[in-house]
Amino acid sequence: MMPPISPDLIAQQNAPQADALHDEYQALGRKLERRGIAIDTIKSRVKGWSVAVPSWGAGRGGTRFAKFPLAGEPTNIHEKLEDCAVIQQLGRTTPRVSPHFPWDCVSDYAGLRQEAEALGLGFDAVNSNTFQDQPGQAQSYATGSLSSTVSATRAQAVEHNIECIEIGRQLGSTALTVWVGDGTNFPGQQDFARSFDRYLDAAAQVYAALPDGWRMMLEHKMFEPAFYSSVISDWGSSLMAAQELGEKCKCLVDLGHHAPNVNIEQIVARLHRAGKLGGFHFNDSKYGDDDLDSGSINPHQLFLVFNELAEAEANPRGGFDPAYMIDQSHNVTDPIESMLASAEAIAGCYARAQLVDREALHAAQEANDVMLAFRTLRAAYEIDVGPILAMARMEQGGAIDWLTTYRASQHRARKAQERKAVGLGAGIV
Ligand code: PSV
Ligand code: MN
């Protein structure tokens, strides 16, 4: 299969920028060398690091008020894969796609896997969906799924999750992410303890169906769609559930699923300490949202999360292998551009965290030298790692300036001719 963007175009766009990039890379290399860091080592680590993109993020998202479609946006998994391939071709940080079912259902999963492979992509964790009803579905999830009071509804939700595992097997995935919207809107609507018991009982049936080498990741979310209480509302509930379910069950941290200003980096450290850090859904948020582009609002928090990850990697305790995924909704941008920007922001925080002088940091911490500890950490954050990321991209066939190259490719305009138009979404207020 032809790559969606011509490699010649990428090379042509890179050519006039290559000298400046080499200059900047060398200047940064000298600066890092003075701090005892070899820039090529950091570049190799960046090349070895990756984050998955969500299939659902390839289309224009919407809010509950409206969706503003984009001409040429993908409407099925085949078109979504094609756009994800563009992201990988230009950015070289996102070789895997995390699919969502039933949104990405097809009749031939072996064929879908081959299609992805031909585009240079693989599949990451499969996501189940028991937060919406599907046409013809026997039981409704209106008042809950895995925690429903109705046993037939719980059974249906269990069965769907098991089906997702089966699909994932065919796609080469090794993880199932479970997020449920279960919860309440009114005090008194449900009993907190009994809902959690029912959830655990149903989740245990899903857990029992996990193949060897698989993990199940529980994603907590404080609110929405349930606005008074959620069954798996926070990392405490998630950890309790993961501990009860077993070794193969871990917690997934979606950055937007916390109250504003919560210290997420500390949660990351705690989950690692408990041996339960399963993975991430990266996004950013300002208030109570979970859909803005990673690093667009609070890049410093993203860096602090990666600082904890670097600590965890250096001190793996029982093991360190989190799954990294993006989970965003792109309501006003071209999703390809947003995911390229996000992948760059995330990889940039990964790179900066590699620059922290850990020995000096630990020494300052031990000596209770507050300012020195703070300055040691901040020094890494303040380094512009752009030349490392751009060099890693270029050396792997990606674009130095992915935005200009993407726009020059006219990919979206071409797809607007080929793909069927998406209807206007209806706002509800
Ligand atoms: C819920 O807000 C969530 O973060 C879960 O990961 C879902 O699977 C995803 O968004 C898409 O709705
Ligand atoms: Mn999520």
TrEMBL record:
Highest taxon in the source lineage: Bacteria
Keyword tags: Isomerase, Manganese, Metal-binding
InterPro entries from the UniProt entry: L-rhamnose_isomerase, Xyl_isomerase-like_sf
Gene Ontology molecular function, alphabetical: isomerase activity; metal ion binding
Gene3D superfamilies cross-referenced by the UniProt entry: Divalent-metal-dependent TIM barrel enzymes
Protein name: Sugar isomerase
Organism of origin: Alteraurantiacibacter buctensis
